[in-house]
């Protein structure tokens, strides 16, 4: 029977181990990234400024591997505060050009700078006066020369053995796209709470949930002169293990916890809530990230934290249990 096993790879034929190949590839791409860092495209800051002023979206277009990278860049832009849409270069020539309009900025990606499928996208931007940014590693190429702003990548060698498969070039493109997105993100003052709006689902969304989204609002409230019998009834009824002592104006004056009960066990039932309450309890605002509240509770070894409005009025309580149930760990 004929031997149908695959031929040995070029690395095996050369006596190179897969681990050696991996290290060579990573070093090649790492060197190229350093080259990009030290030689950031001259138009990079202009590109950031142009996009910040745009009233529309950043339309990213490319084909092949550049298209795959372009989709990721567009997704990163959109999730970090810069409205963006990926338009496939070939589809644009067959009806999708209508997705590109006045107010938009177009970013085209072409390793060679001569991608024929991008011809119509480039022509459309020139015809209607839509700003065009081009990303390529070929200076003087047709697409770069047509663009308003040029993001020139280093002409670094590909990491594959034959020097043809898009490896280093796609890594550089992705990295520069990330740099563009993060620069825009920081210029916009985009914060964690903004990021949560665009990532409401899954573990990431929960990690960025606010205290107000998870807190309990059926509060165990008692007055300072409430008897301990009634205080215990309120603590038991609400099931949070605490009672919030508030004055006539609804302002927080203290918290009675299980620990306070144990510390004052002698003569407890003859005392009032305000007498044994911890007068300066740990509090937090509803807009704080629940992850921060969890860390505050864990560092202080408490199981519940009071949520206040205007620094004095209790509006909720958050328990470690609430955080754990939401998947925040």
Structure write-up:
By secondary structure, the chain is α/β, with parallel strands linked by helices. It folds into two domains: about 20-190, 3-Layer(aba) Sandwich (Rossmann fold), CATH 3.40.50; about 210-325, CBS-domain. The chain is about 45% helix and about 15% strand. The strands form three sheets. The protein has a five-stranded parallel beta sheet with strand order 2-1-3-4-5, with helices on both faces. The protein has a three-stranded mixed beta sheet with strand order 6-7-8. The protein has a three-stranded mixed beta sheet with strand order 9-10-11.
DSSP strand tally? 11
**C-alpha end-to-end distance:** 58 Å
- The ordered string of helix (H) and strand (E) elements is HHHEHEHEHEHEHHHHEHEEHHEHEEH
Number of self-contained structural domains: 2
3D shape: elongated
List keywords for this structure.
five-stranded parallel β-sheet; CBS-domain; alpha/beta; 44% helix; 329 residues; Rossmann fold; three-stranded mixed β-sheet
């Amino acid at each position: 029977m004929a031997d149908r096993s695959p031929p040995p790879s070029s690395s095996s034929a050369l006596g190179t181990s897969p681990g050696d190949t991996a290290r060579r590839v990573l070093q090649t791409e790492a060197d190229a990234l350093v080259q990009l860092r030290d030689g950031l495209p001259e138009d990079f800051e202009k590109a950031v400024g142009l996009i910040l002023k745009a009233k529309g979206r950043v339309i990213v277009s490319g084909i092949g591997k550049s298209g795959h990278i372009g989709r990721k860049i567009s997704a990163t832009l959109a999730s970090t505060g810069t409205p963006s849409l990926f338009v496939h270069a070939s589809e644009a020539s067959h009806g999708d050009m209508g997705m590109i309009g006045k107010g938009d900025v177009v970013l085209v990606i072409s390793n060679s700078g001569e991608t024929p499928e991008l011809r119509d996208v480039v022509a459309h931007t020139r015809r209607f006066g839509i700003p065009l940014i081009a990303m390529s590693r070929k200076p003087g190429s047709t697409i770069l020369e047509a663009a308003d702003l040029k993001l020139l990548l280093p002409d670094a060698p590909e990491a594959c053995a034959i020097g043809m498969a898009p490896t280093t070039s796609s890594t550089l493109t992705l990295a520069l796209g990330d740099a563009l997105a993060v620069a825009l993100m920081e210029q916009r003052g985009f914060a964690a709470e903004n990021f949560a709006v665009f990532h409401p689902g899954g573990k990431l969304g929960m990690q960025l949930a606010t205290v107000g989204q998870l807190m309990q609002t059926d509060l165990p409230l008692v007055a300072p002169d409430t008897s301990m019998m009634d205080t215990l009834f309120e603590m038991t009824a609400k099931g949070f293990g605490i009672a919030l002592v508030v004055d006539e104006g609804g302002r927080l004056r203290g918290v009675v916890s299980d620990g306070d009960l144990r510390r004052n066990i002698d003569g407890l039932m003859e005392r009032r809530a305000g007498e044994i309450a911890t007068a300066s309890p740990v509090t937090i605002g509803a807009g704080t990230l629940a992850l921060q509240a969890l860390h505050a509770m864990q560092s202080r070894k408490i199981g519940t934290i009071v949520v206040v409005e205007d620094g004095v009025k209790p509006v909720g309580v958050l328990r470690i249990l609430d955080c754990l149930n939401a998947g925040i760990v």
